[in-house]
């Protein structure tokens, strides 16, 4: 279960565990996301503006956060690199393990924190370590020094090709460089400054894995996944299903909002299909979702269709090769220990505002992040885009992995645009998205509940019309109506 307090912050270096203990401790590490101890804050502009910050102090040698993602072999990493937008490579972490190159692909917006940690090669305060748990490697950040409350968590990505380093840029905000991504690499040798405990953890890295067959790892993860009878998603849905009556919030789009929503002739699906069908050749560039688009919020001129088209066109499925660890399986399987859904459920169920329980992203921490200064037009687009994405997601069986990936990125940018005071809607959207991913196992009633909830999320994205009308109070008169 989830830790309720920051008491198990980690692995103090005071008592180096023996090998058996290390395995147990390692399991603890990956079971724990340390809710309440990390805050996502803005360090600049653009998609890569986020950074991870300590909430409370962290001691040297402590475990800080896991870099979570899909564990894939180098062949699969190569395949994904070809079909992903270049910016996704920012989330690839390559490392050696049992004589082979592996990769944690954290490009999916799964709500985890490790993927948001920025690079600092001169004075990093953390260091990445491999920790083997039940035959699988996990990448975990450990504090290299005492870290103060409010300090940004950083580590050295490795390599020398990070553009921000070359330009002596320290933060995404200051970077004029496009989102050219340098992937992270980790050498196998422990560094001299490692604590005894860290050395122990590193020593584990060098032990041969219990299984050298990649597929076994995949099987293992799948076996550990919650049983179909009791998935976190179902629990989430259950919790949500039972509450609509208690909510004073109108779960049905009002007339006014319906006006803004795509018309019947223009459903999300139709819009999506239209975009796909009619404009496939608009972009000659393979990366239609250009760096500019990735870095900037969608401009008021961009239609949802255009944005969707961008996402879709950029990533034709080029490979039918079945990956050693199938992307689909890896991506869809909820992590056995603590899925985003579970964490989100926790956050929603406990009503962060009223609870002393440190929810994953507590209200306080969400509010700490700066608000995106969206225009009403942008918000309007976000709403439309969300509807489009939802429609695409409904048809996910026919989506390629790369399209799913693009959709996840777009979802992220939508989440960013939901006003921060509506943090519960943001969380809810993340939950819904996770549930939608597993829609094959959802019942009709569950699907319907999800649709209603989506509407309630849309409700919380400020409409364009309201503000627009304020700006043009005399429009009707001018038109002589
Ligand atoms: C794994 S992501 C880190 C989280 C990222 N900041 C975000 O908001 O998603 C890596 C990307 O963050 C940005 N980044 C990381 N460290 C940086 C630094 N020191 N200066 C500028 N940009 C950095 C780069 O765009 C990089 O490709």
TrEMBL record:
Organism: Knipowitschia caucasica
Annotated InterPro entries: KMT5A, SET_dom, SET_dom_sf
GO cellular component: a single term: nucleus
Coiled-coil portions: none
GO biological process, one term: regulation of DNA damage response, signal transduction by p53 class mediator
GO molecular function, one term: histone H4K20 methyltransferase activity
Domain called SET: residue spans: 25-158
Composition-biased stretches (Polar residues): 1-10
Segments for region (Disordered): 1-25, 173-196, 354-379
Domain of life: Eukaryota
One Pfam family, short name: SET
SMART domains linked to this entry: SET
Name of this chain's protein: SET domain-containing protein
């Amino acid at each position: 279960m989830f830790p309720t307090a920051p008491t198990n912050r980690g692995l103090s270096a005071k008592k180096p565990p023996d090998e058996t203990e290390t395995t147990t401790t390692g399991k603890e590490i990956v079971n724990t996301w340390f809710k309440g101890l990390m805050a996502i804050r803005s360090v600049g502009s653009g998609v890569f503006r986020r950074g991870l910050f300590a909430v409370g102090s962290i001691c040297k040698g402590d475990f800080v956060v896991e870099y979570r993602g899909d564990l894939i072999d180098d062949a699969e990493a190569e395949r994904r690199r070809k079909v992903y937008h270049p910016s996704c490579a920012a989330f690839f972490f390559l490392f050696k393990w049992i004589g082979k190159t592996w990769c944690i692909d954290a490009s999916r917006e799964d709500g985890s924190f490790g993927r948001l940690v920025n690079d600092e090669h001169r004075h990093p305060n953390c260091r990445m370590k491999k920790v083997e748990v039940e035959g699988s490697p996990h990448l975990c950040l450990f504090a290299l020094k005492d870290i103060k409350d409010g300090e940004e968590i950083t580590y050295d990505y490795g390599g020398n090709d990070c553009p921000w380093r070359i330009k002596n840029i320290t933060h995404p905000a200051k970077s004029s460089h496009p989102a050219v991504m340098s992937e992270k690499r980790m050498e196998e040798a422990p560094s001299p400054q490692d604590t005894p405990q860290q050395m122990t953890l590193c020593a584990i890295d060098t032990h041969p894995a219990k299984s050298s067959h990649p597929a076994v790892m995949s099987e293992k993860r799948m076996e550990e996944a919650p049983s179909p009878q009791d998935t976190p998603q179902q629990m989430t849905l259950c919790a949500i299903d039972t509450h609509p009556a208690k909510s004073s919030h109108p779960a049905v789009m009002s007339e006014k909002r319906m006006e803004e929503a795509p018309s019947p002739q223009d459903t999300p699906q139709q819009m999506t299909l239209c975009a796909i069908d009619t404009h496939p050749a608009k972009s000659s560039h393979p990366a239609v979702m250009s760096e500019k688009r990735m870095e900037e919020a969608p401009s008021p001129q961009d239609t949802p269709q255009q944005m969707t088209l961008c996402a879709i066109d950029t990533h034709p499925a080029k490979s039918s090769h079945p990956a050693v660890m199938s992307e689909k399986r890896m991506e869809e399987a909820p992590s056995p220990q603590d899925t985003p859904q579970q964490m989100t459920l926790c956050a929603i169920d406990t009503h962060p505002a009223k609870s002393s329980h440190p929810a994953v992203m507590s209200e306080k921490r969400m509010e700490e992040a700066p608000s995106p200064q969206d225009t009403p037009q942008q918000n309007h687009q976000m709403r439309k885009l969300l509807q489009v994405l939802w429609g695409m997601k409904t048809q996910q069986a026919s989506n390629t992995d790369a399209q799913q990936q693009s959709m996840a990125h777009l979802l992220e940018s939508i989440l960013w645009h939901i006003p921060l005071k509506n943090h519960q809607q943001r969380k809810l959207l993340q939950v819904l998205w996770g549930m939608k991913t597993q829609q094959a196992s959802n019942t009709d009633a569950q699907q319907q509940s999800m649709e209603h909830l989506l509407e309630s999320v849309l409700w919380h994205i400020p409409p364009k019309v309201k503000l627009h009308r304020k700006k043009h109070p005399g429009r009707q008169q001018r038109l002589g109506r």
